[in-house]
Amino acid sequence: MRAWVLGFWTTLRQLGRWPVTLSYPEEQPQLAPRWRGRPVLTRDPDGDERCVACELCSAVCPTHCIELEGDDRPDGRRYARAFRINFSRCIYCGLCEEACPTLAIQLLDEFAFGKERRADFVYPKEALLIDGPGKHPHYRYYDHAGVRIEAATAVPAAAAPLDPLDNRP
Questions:
Q1: Which residues pair with 80 in a beta bridge?
Q2: Rounded Cα gap, residues 119 and 123, in angstroms
Q3: Which of 22, 37, 98, 112 has the highest Cβ tally under 10 A?
Q4: Distance CA 131, CA 134 (A)
């Protein structure tokens, strides 16, 4: 009997601490400041795409839901010719955002999006690009990194074959 009363008393103590129910579509929940929602691709302040197709995001993704193909523009800059995220596999861990050196991938606070077919969860680059710079409005990657320099055209002379047992540099 005593255990029953203590259990009931514990329940009564918690009644005032329960959260208030929201009318969901009309009232949006207040999300935590570090909420990790849907990944998007952002642009720099000039309107160019920030992604340089370094493929760090796809390498760090634990579920391998990011696929991309890179290419060079005529001005020497790299860009993602094709970029695709399969949101049916994404676990919203935020590792892609942390790995991105150009701040191209950012996680928005969007959390509710549903589809009827699994194939509709595969978002191409056009659906992932947003118009603005996201959380970092003044960052320009190429101001810090510059443009790739082409390698020298001279071919080095053939060196003697290396001895794998030799420790000398």
A1: 70
A2: 9
A3: 37
A4: 9
